[in-house]
Every structure is written in structure tokens, then in C-alpha cells.
Design goal:
The complex is a heterodimer of chains A (about 350) and B (about 325). Chain A has about 350 residues and is an alpha/beta fold. In chain A, about 35% of the residues lie in helices and about 20% in strands. Chain A has two domains: about 260 residues, 3-Layer(aba) Sandwich (Rossmann fold), CATH 3.40.50; about 60 residues. Chain A is globular, with a radius of gyration of 21 Å. Chain A starts with a helix and ends in a 12-residue tail after the last strand. Chain B is built from 13 helices and two strands. Chain B has a two-stranded antiparallel ribbon with strand order 1-2. In chain B, strand 1 and strand 2 form a beta hairpin. The radius of gyration of chain B is 23 Å and the shape is elongated. Chain B starts with a helix and ends in a 6-residue tail after the last helix. The chains are: A alpha/beta (about 350), B mainly alpha (about 325). Chains A and B meet through helix 3 of A and helix 10 and helix 11 of B.
Chain lengths: ~350, ~325
């Protein structure tokens, strides 16, 4: 189809050969030091993503999922900082990497897609200016070649008449179109990892489905690893290979998507899934998780979910450790919904 | 598209340009929308036209004046204090009369406008460049640097601009370069405050974070992404401040601490005629005064319309 795509596919086959995950996050702790106290936005989070794999990072607002994404990019602004842990990207530790090295990786090897497409494109710069800039920031390429590459990228994400769109200003494009442009920008430099921070939240369901399909197809084809941050389990269910459920700065459950969706183990995952309306529950009252996400300042010891958990007892005053329930299936809970328990 | 542009530039009438804009609007750049909105006001259009005429007259003064008021060979002291419409010894009519030294006032005003405008605009551009960089970096870097810089700005703005300029000129002495320096010092803080205010808002927007996530350098994010979004208020303040600078220069010159007699700006001309006012020779002061008034009012009217068009809260 196009030059850019051919090269993309070539690199993808190279990547598939390696067994080392693209990104390994180990015991990451990102805290914000405010006057009211330390906010433990990300507290002891570990996960990994392989090439071509899509990891869904699900959780409520304020569960630390976005901060996890920003930590990987090294874009945590003071008063926040990464307190401890390791982020290994293709074997290289990003926590100890220099700001210059991180700047070089950002947009080049690791790209990000943001939530609100109305806000992520600069309103006063034309689409081509912004795309060419993203290319030229990382490689020596003349304007004409860069523009061609931008054209190919727009074509790749399914934008009709890319030539016209390149000359447009962001306000002339619809929301879905803008998000496609943002995705095209993320894929411009053929990154190894893309962090998508709720990119479909601001879109119509129909557009949302198109974007999800497009993103999934692109990841498969290019072998790009992707972290899809969302609060909508229905979105990740159809998209992600694996799901990590976050609550109050911790990952409480990870596993293959269908396993987590069909047999959630952690009471929080059970609650989350219960609050999603679906066809076979029509007419029934939707379950809701009582209470609110706890404040991350001065979180009480023990399980962060205990105040809202129907299964909580005295055991839950002790912080639950990560249990590997089955291979590739980890939970942090004293009382998981095991099969034999008849959940 | 090209056809449309040529049609539009060929058509001087503003109303027609707008209807074309609406019918054709294939690719509407922010700039073209701005132009068509600006031209909606007849008053602003008139002011812009007047300002353009004044600037052109100032630039081409040597070609449209009968006399070079700086060339002593062309100035005859015997022509001094002639009322408007008098015939000079050197066979041309002095439509606006002459001043005490025998200079044709019409010529002197145009030459004076040159100096006034040059001083006002030059100091404006330098002050914008300084104030913009300071305000932008203060907003972007933040922290102690921002606090330090903005306190200096506050300190400076707590003195009246005229006082600051007066003190500086008193220290530095006369001369065009010194006046420009004084005007820059008196003005940069306004620009710094304006730019910092809007840059703070822009900086927290998501596109800045997106630019950072693309691995763009800080300088690039500052000047290429944040700055263009801060231009609207800067243009408005810049226009109004340039009018202030011209008025301030006239004030200093009138007080006798500004430009020397050999480089007569409008302020110097007004000061020269001041002593003749009571003896009924009004024209020596009044005509340069009117020229100054028209210049400043037209700049302010243009500035007001710019403010209306560029202010998102007043969007119709």
C-alpha cells in the first residue's frame, strides 16, 4: 500500500522473534509530595507488555492508571516523582535514564495518545506542521519526505483524502478525525510502545468502535506493544489481550482478558464488572460498588478496598501480597472469588 | 482556492469579501477569519485606513513635502511665524503656516511623524521581544525564577511609565537611542505580564503535554507551541502600548528632556510653538498636536477592534 507500511511490517516480524517483553515495570512507586502529605498515586505496581500485545489498564478515576502511563514516559511533574522501582524498556532502565535520553525516546520509541482529541492538537498549527515536527524531532528527514510519511500515516489510520486533512487546522476536523490524527502521530516514528490514555472516552460509540478496531489492527500489524488505559471494561474486553485492574494505586488483578471478564477473582473486579450494563442483565438493577475511591493521602494500612468490600474481614487489615493464582493470573486479595467458593 | 484569494485581494470592499468568505470557505485559516471579522467595523476600517495613510506619509515625507526642515539652506528665518496659507519667500504656499525658525509646518509635521513613529515602533518591537521572552520563560520554567522575575515586573509597574522614562532620560541624556532605551525599559514589563498570564493558561493545556510526549525540545514547545497561542493578547497590548510610547515620547520631548531640537519630533514641535500660543500664533502648536492626536486615536481604534475580534469571550 505505502512505503511507511512496508517498513512497519518488516520491523514487526523482527520484533516478534524476541522473547523479551518490550516493557517491564517492577514495583513502581510514584508519589506526589503535597503539603497535605504524600499521595501514593502509584504504589508497588508491576506488569509487563510484549511486542504486539495490548494490555488493558482498567480502573476508576484516581486509581493511578494515568500516572503509571506518565511514569513510563518520564513526564511526572513536581511535586510528584518516582520513588522506587524499575521501568525496563527493551532492557533499558528508564527510571535512571537521563532527561535527554527520555526526550529522545518520547515520541520516537514510546508514543502517547491522549484522552481528549479536542485538546491534544495545537489549535494554531496545521496538521501537517505538527506531524512533520514530530518526525523531524527524531530523525533527519527533509520536509517533503516527512510530509509524505505523514500522508501515509493518515492513510493508514483510515482518514479519507489525507492531502486535504494535512492542510487543515485541528478545529476543522471532527472529534473522531482528530483522534485518528493523534493515533497517526503516535505511529509516525514506528514506536515499540504506545501508551493510550482513554483515547476513546470523548468519542461517540460508533466512532469509538472504529478507533478501537483501527488501533488493534495497527498493533497487530506493526508489532507495537500497547497499554490501553481506560475506566470502561467494555472497551478493553474486546480490545486487550490481557487486563490489569488497578485500585488505589495498586494492581489488584491481572490475567488474560477473557479469564478476567468471565471469572473475575478480586471482589473489586467483580464489582466493576457488575456495574457494566449488558444485554443479559436487562431490567435488573445494576450492582454498584458502595462508597468512593479512597483518598490516596494517608491510606489506611491493609487492603485499600476493605471499606467497600463485601468480603472484608479482620484478615484484610494486613496488606495482601500478590498471589499467582494460575500462570499469568495474579491477584492481591485475601478472599478471592475462587471457583469452588461458588462466586 | 488560489482563484478565491485573487478575487478577494482584487476586491477592496470589505462586505463583499465576507460574503465570499462564507460561500467559498473551503479552507478557512484562523488568519483569514480574523481579517474578515476585523473589517466588519466601519470605524476600525477608517482608523486602519488613516493609520496607513499616516505611516505612508511619514515614510515618503521627503517626496511630498516642499521643504526639508532639517536642511538649513532651505529654511529662511524671514519666513518665521507666518500664518497658515501664507506665501513663503521661496515661492510655495505654507498651508499650515510656519514656526519660529521659518520652517514650513506641513513639512515639519511629516518629518516629525517619521521620528515619532520610528521611535514608538522601534521601542515597541524591542520591548515586545524582551517582555515576551521574559514572560514566556517565567511561565514555562516557573518556581523561583518566575517569582523573582514577576516581582521585578510588579515593582516596575508600580511606578508610572512617564516617571520611569523621565528618570532614565535624566540619567542618560538626550538622543534618539537613549529615548528608545528609556521607552523600552518603561514598557517591557507590560508585555512580560501579558504573555506570562496567557502562557500560564496555555501551558496547562493538554497539547503542551502531547508535545512533550512527542519528545520536542523545551525551546520548541515554548516558542512554537505556546507562543502562537499567546499572540492574540500580545498583539492588542502591543498596539495600544505603541500609541502610549508615541505619546510618552511626545511628553518627554515637550518637557525638553526627549529629542534634541535638531531631530524635531511632534513633541518638540508642540513645545516650540507653546511660547507663541498666548500671542495668538496658535498654529505652531495646534497642528502638530492634531497630527499627534489623529495618530494616537487611530492606533487606539485599531487596537480596540483587535481586542474585540481576538477576545474569545466576545465571540459573536
Amino acid at each position: 500500500m505505502s512505503v511507511a507500511e512496508d517498513t512497519l511490517e518488516k520491523t514487526s516480524s523482527q520484533r516478534d522473534g524476541s522473547a523479551v517483553p518490550t516493557l517491564v515495570v517492577e514495583n513502581l512507586k510514584t508519589h506526589f509530595f503535597t503539603r497535605a502529605g504524600a499521595v501514593k498515586a502509584v504504589d508497588d505496581v508491576s506488569f509487563s507488555v510484549k511486542a504486539g500485545e495490548i494490555l488493558g489498564l482498567a480502573g476508576e478515576s484516581g486509581s493511578g492508571k494515568s500516572i503509571t502511563g506518565f511514569s513510563v514516559l518520564g513526564l511526572i511533574d513536581p511535586p510528584g516523582r518516582i520513588v522506587s522501582g524499575a521501568i525496563r524498556f527493551n532492557g533499558e532502565d528508564l527510571v535512571t535514564a537521563s532527561p535527554e535520553r527520555l526526550q529522545d525516546l518520547r515520541g520516537n520509541r514510546i508514543a502517547m495518545i491522549f484522552q481528549d482529541p479536542m485538546m491534544t492538537l495545537n489549535p494554531v498549527l496545521r496538521v501537517d506542521t505538527q506531524m512533520i515536527e514530530a518526525i523531524q524531532a527524531h530523525r533527519k528527514m527533509d520536509r517533503k519526505a516527512a510530509r509524505q510519511r505523514a500522508y501515509d500515516a493518515l492513510e493508514m489510520v483510515g482518514i479519507p483524502s489525507p492531502g486535504e486533512r494535512l492542510n487543515a487546522y485541528p478545529h476543522q476536523l471532527s472529534g473522531g478525525m482528530r483522534q485518528r490524527v493523534a493515533i497517526a502521530i503516535a505511529f509516525l516514528n514506528e514506536p515499540d510502545l504506545i501508551i493510550a490514555d482513554e483515547p476513546t472516552t470523548a468519542l461517540d460509540v460508533t466512532i469509538q468502535a472504529q478507533i478501537l478496531h483501527e488501533a488493534q489492527a495497527l498493533c497487530r500489524r506493526t508489532g507495537t506493544a500497547m497499554i490501553w488505559i481506560t475506566h470502561d471494561l467494555a472497551v478493553v474486553a474486546g480490545l486487550a489481550d490481557r487486563i490489569a485492574v488497578m485500585y488505589a494505586g495498586r494492581i489488584v488483578e491481572t490475567g488474560q482478558t477473557d479469564e478476567v471478564i468471565d471469572h473475575p477473582l478480586h471482589p473489586y473486579s467483580v464489582g466493576l464488572l457488575g456495574s457494566v450494563p449488558s444485554a443479559n442483565k436487562r431490567g435488573d438493577r445494576l450492582n454498584q460498588i458502595p462508597g468512593m475511591t479512597p483518598s490516596l493521602i494517608g491510606l489506611p494500612s491493609g487492603c485499600a478496598f476493605k471499606a467497600r468490600c463485601p468480603r472484608a474481614d479482620d484478615h484484610c487489615d494486613a496488606t495482601p501480597e500478590v498471589i499467582e493464582e494460575m500462570p499469568g493470573r495474579e491477584i492481591r486479595c485475601h478472599h478471592p472469588h475462587r471457583q469452588e467458593a461458588g462466586a | 482556492m488560489t482563484v478565491e484569494i485573487t478575487q478577494q485581494s482584487a476586491d477592496a470592499d470589505a462586505g463583499l469579501a465576507i460574503t465570499q468568505e462564507e460561500t467559498a470557505a473551503a479552507i478557512e485559516t484562523p488568519f483569514r477569519r480574523f481579517v474578515s471579522e476585523f473589517l466588519e467595523s466601519r470605524l476600525a476600517l477608517g482608523a486602519l485606513f488613516t493609520l496607513g495613510a499616516i505611516i505612508l506619509a511619514a515614510i515618503f515625507a521627503p517626496f511630498i513635502t516642499p521643504q526639508d526642515p532639517y536642511d538649513l539652506a532651505q529654511v529662511d528665518i524671514l519666513d518665521g511665524r507666518l500664518p497658515p496659507g501664507s506665501e513663503a519667500f521661496t515661492e510655495y504656499t505654507m498651508w499650515l503656516g510656519s514656526d519660529g525658525a521659518g520652517r514650513d509646518l506641513y513639512s515639519a509635521i511629516l518629518y516629525g511623524l517619521r521620528i515619532s513613529l520610528a521611535v514608538g515602533i522601534t521601542s515597541g518591537i524591542i520591548a515586545i521581544a524582551i517582555g515576551m521572552s521574559v514572560g514566556l520563560s517565567a511561565a514555562y520554567i516557573g518556581g523561583r525564577f518566575e517569582t523573582f522575575v514577576m516581582r521585578i515586573v510588579d515593582l516596575q509597574l508600580s511606578f508610572p511609565a512617564a516617571l520611569v522614562a523621565l528618570m532614565l532620560v535624566a540619567l542618560l541624556g538626550k538622543g534618539i537611542d537613549k529615548i528608545i532605551l528609556a521607552l523600552v525599559v518603561a514598557q517591557w514589563a507590560y508585555y512580560a505580564r501579558t504573555v506570562r498570564g496567557s502562557a500560564l493558561v496555555e501551558r496547562s493545556k493538554e497539547y503542551v503535554e502531547a508535545a512533550a510526549s512527542l519528545g520536542l525540545s523545551h525551546a520548541r514547545i515554548m516558542f512554537r507551541h505556546i507562543l502562537p497561542n499567546c499572540l492574540a493578547p500580545l498583539i492588542v497590548v502591543g498596539t495600544i502600548q505603541t500609541a502610549h510610547a508615541i505619546a510618552l515620547e511626545a511628553t518627554l520631548s515637550f518637557l525638553g528632556v526627549g529629542l534634541p531640537q535638531t531631530e524635531p519630533s511632534l513633541g518638540v514641535l508642540i513645545a516650540n510653538g507653546f511660547e507663541y500660543m498666548l500671542s495668538g500664533k496658535y498654529w505652531i502648536s495646534v497642528f502638530p498636536g492634531i497630527a499627534l492626536l489623529i495618530t494616537i486615536v487611530s492606533i487606539n481604534l485599531v487596537g480596540d477592534q483587535l481586542r474585540d475580534v481576538l477576545n474569545p469571550r466576545l465571540k459573536r
